[in-house]
TrEMBL record:
One MF annotation (Gene Ontology) recorded for this entry: hydrolase activity, acting on carbon-nitrogen (but not peptide) bonds, in linear amides
PANTHER family per UniProt: AMIDASE 1 (PTHR46310)
UniProt cross-references to Pfam families, sorted A to Z: Amidase
Protein name: Amidase domain-containing protein
Domain of life: Eukaryota
Organism encoding this protein: Gossypium darwinii (Darwin's cotton)
């Protein structure tokens, strides 16, 4: 199927009107798009692959998350392109085309929610829905220079969303405006309006930022100056997250003993990533191995090996992966307490160029999943915030809050956003 929209974001265009005509609804007048992983009544959910679409029937119900934003007053304008079977963070799809990154057309848009991010970044819709299992909202948000929110795990129903790996699957969303991001979040999370709360502490793990190729002046420097201006610098704390995780998550030692101590990474976070990917592969296999082996679909060459490796992977050490999840959530909850924030690079550097050889991305991907697995394994909520451009490429930073603190994090982004953007613009002038 050919691309059906400017920027190549959409796989299918249609209109779903709000379920109420009231102008007083929180999302009235806003348009949105949905990743082609969400069921919409009367449409086949394509899951990024033509053979999947060919072998499945039209949905008879609309996913609750889609219904929530329709009931909030928003209008849906179509479904967006995604990576095949949600199994990549690049956003390149050989069947439907790769959506054009609005910030850097020669770079990947990020996946697997590529079309949803591009639709927002290109100004085609006000917000969009995606899914985030291993980073599929956070990565494209960073690459496309927009806001992207991964909620606390299980905070939003994933009913009517094709599962990738249920231990990590979340419904996420994108916006250009922090107020819209907040309003959409309240509709999805069924949250009342509450006043913003100042963070008790903001933790900056210098070891994590050492994984990034972006100068600290464009990431932590911007945030530190913003916080000092808004609430004073006394709440800023520096921490070595790798050491903390190594000490507090003893089950990780099993994975650290398997060759994850690389000079280019943080051993405990590399082990965390290994644990996440093992459980992810196991759950993906349970969900989709039967269809894959029965249909033998045409898969893109850059994804085929990884998908079939997952299908053939042994189901071992799953209990240890579960222990890692429990221990990490407890450790990070103890670190952040009620109103603490953990700051991270969303990704370890610039968006890769289109069609970059996968072997040359090995270190980048390893670092990316070390960072992404922190929220993924703990189930914490995370938001990626754009910080303008550096060397003509988009820059971002992420904030994490403990599980269930979604309203706190959404309010914080809205309250701090303008100051962060002012500091980012100032830094951009002197570091590009």
């Amino acid at each position: 199927m050919a691309k059906t929209s400017e920027s190549g974001a959409f796989v299918e265009k249609f209109i779903l009107q709000p379920t109420s005509s009231s102008q007083q609804l929180p999302l009235s007048g806003l348009t949105f798009a949905v990743k082609d992983i969400f069921d919409v009544d009367g449409y086949v959910t394509g899951f990024g692959n033509p053979d999947w679409k060919r072998t499945h029937s039209a949905a008879t119900l609309t996913a609750p998350a889609v219904l929530d934003v329709l009931e909030g007053g928003a209008t849906c304008v179509g479904k967006t392109i995604m990576d095949e079977m949600a199994y990549c963070i690049n956003g390149e799809n050989i069947h439907y085309g790769t959506p054009t990154n609005p910030c850097a057309p020669d770079r990947v848009p990020g996946g697997s929610s590529s079309g949803s991010a591009v639709a927002v970044g290109a100004g085609l819709v006000d917000f969009s829905l995606g899914s985030d299992t291993g980073g599929s909202v956070r990565v494209p948000a960073s690459y496309c220079g927009i806001l992207g929110f991964r909620p606390s795990h299980d905070a939003i129903s994933t009913s009517g969303v094709i599962p990738m790996a249920q231990s990590f699957d979340t419904v996420g969303w994108f916006a250009r405006d922090p107020t819209v991001l907040n309003r959409v979040g309240r509709a999805l999370l069924h949250l009342p309006n509450v006043n913003p709360v100042t963070p008790s502490q903001i933790f900056i793990p210098e070891d994590c930022f050492s994984l990034s190729s972006i100068p600290s002046a464009r990431t932590t420097g911007v945030l530190i100056k913003s916080i000092e201006k808004l609430v004073g610098g006394s709440i800023l704390k520096h921490v070595n997250l790798g050491d903390y995780v190594k000490e507090k998550v003893p089950s990780l030692h099993h994975f650290m003993a398997k060759g994850n101590d690389h000079a280019y990474n943080i051993p405990s976070l590399a082990a965390l990533s290994s644990s996440m990917r093992l459980l992810q592969r196991c759950e993906f296999k349970k969900n989709h191995a039967e269809w894959l082996t029965t249909v033998n679909p045409n898969l893109g060459p850059r994804l085929s090996k990884r998908i079939w490796d997952a299908v053939r992977s042994p189901e071992e050490n799953i209990g240890i992966c579960r222990s890692v999840q429990t221990e990490l959530r407890a450790a990070l909850t103890d670190l952040l307490k009620d109103e603490g924030i953990l700051v991270l690079p969303t990704v370890p550097g610039d968006p890769p160029k289109l069609q970059t050889d996968l072997a040359s991305l090995e270190v980048f991907r390893a670092r990316a999943f070390s960072l992404l697995s922190i929220a993924g394994v703990s189930g914490f909520c995370q938001v990626s915030i754009p910080l303008g451009m550096h060397n003509n490429l988009p820059v971002s930073i992420s904030l994490l809050a403990k599980h269930g603190s979604d309203a706190f994090l959404l309010n914080l982004v809205e309250a701090f956003y303008d100051t962060i953007q002012e500091e980012a613009g100032f830094a951009e002038k002197f570091t590009n």
